[in-house]
Design goal:
Residues 64-250 form the BPL/LPL catalytic domain. One of its GO terms (cellular component) is cytoplasm. This is Bifunctional ligase/repressor BirA. The chain is globular and about 60 Å long. It has eight helices and 16 strands. It has helices at 2-14, 24-30, 55-65, 84-91, 142-158, 221-225, 231-252, 255-263, and strands at 19-21, 34-35, 38-43, 47-52, 75-81, 101-107, 125-131, 164-166, 170-173, 176-188, 191-201, 271-275, 280-288, 294-297, 303-306, 310-313.
């Protein structure tokens, strides 16, 4: 029956707005299922009508279905923006609520760490979330690591893949980058006003959709699985996991998050070269500190704490 359902969706998407006759058992199984932005409407007892949903309709359904109490209770949807991070920053002076989400179908100037350009055309999941934790500024990088755990869990929720975290802000599948995280802080009078966490996730792009220069290192969920994923289902999974981890973090501190991060990390135990703005450090990654710094044990036995660096495996 599942094969019939998949074939049906393929036919319906080709016949947008038309009726397709259907056997009763199949209709009962499908009900009003949605996939890839299409809404299926029942037509009497003998067919279904396929209607392509607008971004607004899908977004409204996403908000209504979201079981969270904080994350995603205030959502702003855009078809195209320069960057969701830029929009989020503009919302901070307007007293944006904690948990506010800014989502875009496409970014024209998406960026990652160190102002690097992030390819973010339609087919991916591009969003920023605003949080306002009462924590010291120096431990704000912990939120990047928390977010990485939420992304890994969300991907595992939708497909049996094995995403791994590469310090400090990358998610890999089979050694290729599928997601990047950018955390930016807004402060006032020496305390945190807001933290904006940007997430860029490659979801439904094919391998050939990426620019040639990043094809060897980039991938998408579709490229790794052959499955097209509903973006809002993936976003819902992220919001649920992020809220659970965020509440856990605020109540119990970073230690439990640290353990979860290390369990899902692709970097621990590897010999690496860390290039900072001041020096290059060779050694073995042994974990992360409570502040979220990478711990590298050098040949002389000394351990260095790295808060920001480009990381490469020694064998590459």
């Amino acid at each position: 029956m599942n094969g019939q359902v998949n074939d049906l969706f393929a036919s319906l998407m080709k016949e947008d707005g038309y009726f397709l006759p259907m056997e009763r058992p199949l209709i009962d199984q499908i009900r009003l299922t949605t996939k890839a932005g299409y809404r299926l409407e029942r037509v009497g007892d003998s067919g279904l009508r396929c209607v392509k949903e607008s971004l607004y309709e899908r977004g409204r359904r996403f908000v209504n279905d979201l079981p969270t109490t904080l994350i995603g209770k205030h959502v702003y949807f855009f078809e195209t923006v320069s960057s969701t991070q830029t929009i989020a920053k503009q919302f901070i002076p307007l007293k944006a609520k904690e948990g506010t989400l800014i989502i875009a179908e496409e970014q024209t100037a998406g960026r990652g760490r160190m102002a690097r350009k992030w390819y973010s055309q339609k087919g991916g999941l591009w969003f920023s979330v605003i949080v306002k934790p009462n924590i010291p500024i120096k431990i704000a990088p912990q939120l990047t690591l928390l977010t990485a755990v939420a992304v890994v869990r969300a991907i595992k929720d939708v497909l049996p893949l094995q995403p791994k975290i590469k310090w400090p802000n990358d998610i890999l599948i089979n050694g290729k980058k599928v997601c990047g995280i950018l955390t930016e802080l807004q402060s006032a009078n020496g305390s945190i006003e807001a933290i904006i966490i940007g997430v860029g996730m490659n979801v439904n792009q094919g391998k050939n959709n990426f620019p040639k220069d990043i094809r060897p290192i980039a991938t998408s969920i579709f490229a790794e699985s052959g499955n097209t994923i509903d973006l809002f289902s993936l976003l819902k999974a992220f919001c649920v996991h992020f809220e659970q981890l965020y509440e856990q973090y605020l109540q119990h501190g970073f230690k439990e998050i640290q353990t979860l991060w290390e369990q899902n990390c692709d970097t621990i135990g590897k010999e690496v070269v860390a290039t900072t703005i001041r020096e290059t450090i060779d050694g073995k990654v042994i974990g992360i500190s409570e502040e979220g710094a990478l711990l590298i044990k050098k040949e002389n036995g000394k351990v260095s704490e790295i808060f920001s660096a480009d990381l490469t495996n020694k064998s590459t």
